[in-house]
Amino acid sequence: VSCGEQLQDFGRPEKIIIGVMLAIITAVTVMGNTLVVIAVCVVKKLRQPSNYLLVSLAVADLSVAIVVMPFVIVTDLTGGKWLFGDTFCNIFIGMDVMCCTASIMTLCVISVD
């Protein structure tokens, strides 16, 4: 099992631009999904069963943003080298599959609803 893959080795300016863009995407994902969870928890009119599915999707996407995206960013910026060890590589792959599957399955449930 390999978590890293050889990508292009970017120069310093490209790494800075890519790192900042990916960090912004991750931050916006965390903030947006957190706001969805807070809104449904705080506003009584939003506490409806259909909105609980949206909260579930927000939590699944939040888990991707917190557990998966930072490690992918670091790996991309190091030219595809996995820096976190073999044991954590296996844990990371499991978390990646689980979090992404939770998000996809929640989308399927929302579409059925």
TrEMBL record:
Gene Ontology BP, a term: adrenergic receptor signaling pathway
Occurrences of domain G-protein coupled receptors family 1 profile (ranges): 32-113
InterPro entries the UniProt entry points to: GPCR_Rhodpsn, GPCR_Rhodpsn_7TM
GO molecular function, one term: G protein-coupled receptor activity
Pfam families in alphabetical order: 7tm_1 (PF00001)
Keywords in alphabetical order: Cell membrane, G-protein coupled receptor, Membrane, Receptor, Transducer, Transmembrane, Transmembrane helix
Principal subcellular localisation of the protein: membrane
Transmembrane spans: 16-40, 52-73, 93-112
A Gene Ontology term for the protein's cellular component: plasma membrane
Membrane topology designation: Multi-pass membrane protein
Identification of the protein by name: 5-hydroxytryptamine (serotonin) receptor 7c
Organism: Seriola lalandi dorsalis
Organismal lineage: Eukaryota, Metazoa, Chordata, Craniata, Vertebrata
